[in-house]
Amino acid sequence: MKPSLTTKVLLATALFTSSVPSFATENGGTVVPVGVQSVLPGMLAAPGTYLYNYNAYVKGFSARDEHGDDTGMGLKMATSANAFRFLHVFDENVLGNGNLAFETSIVYTDNRMKMHYVGDSRNSGISDITFGPSLGRHFGSYNDIFVLLFTAPTGDYDKNRLANVGRNYWGIQGSYAWTWYPMQNWDVSGLFKVIYNTENEDTHYQSGMETNFEYSSNYYFSNGMFVGVGGFWHGQFTDDKQNGHVVGENGNKVNEIALGPQVGWGTPQYGAYFSWKRSVLAKNTMDISQLWLNTFLTF
Fold this sequence. Notes:
Elements: H1 5-10, E1 48-64, E2 76-94, E3 98-115, E4 119-126, E5 129-139, E6 142-152, E7 171-183, E8 186-197, E9 205-206, E10 210-220, E11 225-236, E12 241-242, E13 245-246, E14 255-266, E15 270-283, E16 285-298
Antiparallel strand pairs: 1-2, 1-16, 2-3, 3-4, 3-5, 5-6, 6-7, 7-8, 8-10, 9-12, 10-11, 11-14, 12-13, 14-15, 15-16
């Protein structure tokens, strides 16, 4: 069954690919945000040029150990970010049913952190830049996207500072996302991503390979509104290493799950949605909540 007009225009709020901290790996950070790709992640927009704006507020309540217990470090975090993503989808069909696209994302981030015996730390500025190609395909009620993205260490970083807007290493992410319409006004979507991290040359720390699975389901009304639920699972399948040695008893592998509601509205020219997610599992990471306001504009 083909997607409705409402679902077609709202797909523009998917696929945020920039550097908003979500706490995992080295110092609890990651080059790739989790929790944002909860609206039609498998639908590539129609040929054209798009501007997306993503606004996030992430609050970290406590650091959790490998068992999910509070570490007692008194670590608190508040991150706000404003991101702009530019996407161009080319007209030419590829393999008869797909289109190539290219994107780049620029983020302004304000990070505030504090911990017992360390005090407050704050850093703000342009974060690491992400860019790369994608291929979106359409098969009636089933749609998918293959994405290859690179995150460059362009953001400010100081190894002696608790809060940083940059990660100081390259990240390479490959992902596959799908959106399926079992009924015309209802979608079931998912995204699976693998992230490879290079070594931080200042700390000689190499974060393990990460996995991220995002999932969502939304119902679309005829007036352009939609409501749904979205969430993510974020983990690692290789160990963190420093100076060539495994970090911690289990390689400092992150394991986190979050879930929450979302609501939005859109037209063919513009749209917006709110989403909120809360940790239901947090190991080797922070117990967090996320609030997103994402918008798009078609040129």
